[in-house]
Amino acid sequence: MKLVFIGYMASGKSSIGRIIAKKVQIPFIDLDDFIEKKENLSIVELFKTKGEIYFRKKETQFLEELLKNEESFVLALGGGTPCYGKNIDLINEFSTSVYLKSSLQNTYNTLSKAENKESRPLIATIPNDKLKEFIAKHLFERTTYYEQAQHAILIDNKGMDEIAEEILIRLDDPALKK
Fold it and tell me: Which residues does the record give as ATP binding sites (predicted)?
């Protein structure tokens, strides 16, 4: 089985992905970490030195490489990955996709905390009084792609273990296993 998590920043893609991978005993892969290892550069350095177009091409190349591999895994994508090229079609063709859906308010509450902002270059310099508007605009642009996932799980007011259990129950249907 290939299980791919999509969603906005701070929706829990990596955290929930790790929990599920451990429970079903298959490898967990974070696409950003995978790209950094392959390119020997951080995502921030890739953007600075080679540009976003180069990054997006590599992102699609490595996503396709992983998805067309025969191995089972749980994969967490960057928030923008499904929104470029034909990535969402590729994801849905070769895996089971799950959108971790968070309300604007829940997303803002999580991202407005200093410890969450500092590690995210996209929002690090945006003051909190402008952050909600930034998130709303971004979600508006990306939701069309996110909603093409085969499954959507609302994560508001739920713990990571509760969300993971909800996903595992839903995926227990043999018809969903790819």
Answer: 10-15, 120
Is 97 labelled a binding residue?
no
Closest CA to 22 of 159, 160, 158, 175: 160
Q: Which amino acid belongs to residue 3?
A: L
In a domain, 116, yes or no: yes
Average pLDDT of the segment spanning 117-143: 90
Does 178 reside within a domain? no
User: Which residue in this structure is represented by tokens 């969603």?
Assistant: 7
How far apart CA 51 and CA 54 sit, in angstroms, is 6
- The reported pTM is 0.92
Which residue range(s) make up the domain with 118?
2-173
Q: Is 14 annotated as a binding residue?
A: yes
Q: Does 32 belong to an annotated binding site?
A: yes
CB atoms within 10 A of CB 114: 7
Query: Is 68 marked within a binding site?
Result: no
Number of domains within the chain: 1
72, pLDDT greater than 70: yes
Q: Which CATH number belongs to the domain containing residue 72 in this structure?
A: 3.40.50.300
**56 is an annotated ligand-binding site residue:** yes
**Residue 102, marked binder:** no
Start-end of H helices in 68-113 = 87-94, 104-111
Ligand-binding annotation for 12, yes or no, is yes
**Region of residue 122 (left: phi > 0; alpha: psi -120 to 50; beta: else):** alpha
CA-closest candidate to residue 47, choices 80, 17, 76: 80
